[in-house]
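cron nightly-structures :: item 1 of 1
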Amino acid sequence: MSDVRDLFPYESLAFLGKVNASISHELKNIMAIISETAGLLEDLSDMAADGPPVAPDMLANCTRSIVEEIQRGFATIRQMNRLAHSVDTPVATVDLLELIDLVVHLAGYLSRSGKVRVTAVGKASPVVRTSPFLLQAIIYQVLGYTFENFGAGADLTISILPRDDSVWRIVFSGFSAAGFRVFPDAATRRMADAIQVRIDWETTADQLTLDVPQRLAGADGLASGTDVNAVTGSIGDNNRQE
C-alpha cells in the first residue's frame, strides 16, 4: 500500500487545484462585474458634472449591483474556507448533509454545472466518522463527471438513506449510467478504498451509490495499510484565517 499512499498527495493537490481554479474563475467574474459597474458610476458622475442630474434609480441600480456582487464574493470565500478547514483533522465526525451541501456549492462554480437537489430519507441525522476531505473529493468527482457528460442540462438528485445500521447510502440519480464511460477512475477508486467507501452502479435504476460507513474500521478510523495523514497532511499548511 505504500505506493498508493505515495500517490495520494498528488491526488489531493489535483482535487484542490480543480476546485481552486473554479473558485478563482468565479471571483474573477465577480470582480469584473464590480469593476464594470464602478466604471459606469464614474461615467454617470462625469455626465452629472457636465449636464443635467443623473436619475437616482440609475445610481441605485449600480450600487445595488455592487453590493450583490460583494455578498456573492463573501459567500464564495466562505465555501473556499470550509473546504480549506476540511483538512484540519484527517478523520472527523461530520454531518453528511452539510458535507454534501458544501460540495454541491463548490461544484456549482464549474462552467458546465447543472441542477442538483439533495434530500435525506428518514428522521435520523446522517452523521459519519470519516475523512471529510477525501469524501468531498469523491462526491465532487461524481458531480464533475455528471456535468461533463450531461452539461448544464444535468438535473441530478442526491438522496441520503440508511443502508443498514452501520452504513449510510448516498444515491445519485437523474442520469443514464451509459453516459459515464470511465467512472470511477483509478484515483477516485483509491480514495474510496482509503476510507472504505463502496462505489456501485445500479444500472437497472440508472443510479450511482456510495456506501459510507458510519465509522471507519481500525484503531484510528483508517483502512488497513492506509495513512490518511499521508493522504491529506502533505498538501501543505492551510491559511486558518476566515
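cron nightly-structures :: done
Confidence is low (pLDDT under 50) at residues 1-7, 230-242.
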